[in-house]
Amino acid sequence: MNFPVHNGQNLDNTLKRKKSYKNEWNGPTEVVKTICQLSDMLLERFNFEPMEVSKMKVVITDFEFGDLKYEEKVLNHSDVELVYGQCKTEEEVIEFCRDADGIINQYAPISRRVIESLENCKIIARYGVGVDTIDIEAATEKGIPVGYVPDYGIDEVSDHALALIMNVLRKVTITNKSVKNGVWDYAVTKPIRRLRTLTIGLVGFGNIPRRLSQKVQALGMNVIVSDPFISEEVVKDNKATLVSLNELCEQADVISVHAPLTNSTKGMLGKDQFNLMKDGVYIVNTARGPVIDESALIDAIQTGKVSGAGLDVLDKEPISSGHPFLTLDQVTLTPHMAGYSEEAYAELRSKTALALMDVLVYSQTPKYLFNKNVSEQLSLKPFTEDSHYKNLGY
Known about the structure:
Blueprint (H helix, E strand, L loop, with lengths): L10 H6 L11 H18 L10 E5 L8 H6 L5 E5 L5 H8 L4 E4 L6 H6 L5 E4 L9 H6 L4 E2 L6 H17 L1 H9 L18 E5 L3 H12 L3 E5 L5 H6 L3 E2 L2 H7 L2 E4 L13 H6 L4 E5 L8 H9 L3 E6 L19 E3 L8 H19 L26 H4 L4
Parallel strand pairs: 1-2, 1-3, 3-4, 4-5, 6-7, 6-9, 7-8, 9-10, 10-11, 11-12
Helix pairs in contact: 7-9
């Protein structure tokens, strides 16, 4: 068959002119060279242009890390294009993510309005255990799976909660300030209680508070738990006692908050709950700030109902310059850092990116799927391929 070329010659004549090459072949190297020359000539004569392959666009809406080395390593695939920004508003996210195939999110709002504007999105994944920046209902309605990292920072957050518990009970921050101000007197710490005489109440009993429970039990503390989604058997297996939230407030000497932020948990520790608590109770929060009614907590501290608080999270972050917490010596603050360690951040960032690889490259549901009820809408196969996790040690 003769193939037309742009100057009217046919392929047969073209190949005849190349017969002279056969006398110059001196081995495999010359063969390859000749084939390449023929290929280049044919491409030129037929005006062939390289075909552009459409890549899947992955957008990172915002991030607080100094680089994206872990994300870039995981998403280094010929079919994936990674772009990133620092979106803060709905409008910025809509503009940036409209044509995205996949989204990684930290703090930028992924609201219903944002989700309804997405044209191609097949997966949204968030850095962390909580997904409160994402409208889960809207994502599910649109058939978009939401990935998260439920096993992120279990050791780190439980360690940090324990550090805050020990700090408020042993009054380390208060005495440090006192000594540096020239007062060498343990009386400023009174009263301090023996740890093994105390009961700690854990609000929520997921992976992190379960690990914390083990740690405080090693110190001799009695553990009670309030969590409507956990069975009494699970709590007993962890050598703790399941109680209602009101019972926890009445019985605990220390309350450590670990509930996720949802419509039902927002403000769940408010004025009524503080009124039930023992005088001199201690509060620790490493979950989400709005789970505690901040105004009610401030009132409880100022009236002496709460002797001390260790807070890694606040209602609004970062803290404003005139916030009452800044003038209350009974309050120890850390900047939402409980989940941080170098190892934890590497795992968090890698697993978040792996969720996008699950969907976009391996066409399977994410290993860690938050909105499980979206599965019936998906054409993805169940999660089975895990080599990309194992290659990273996860």
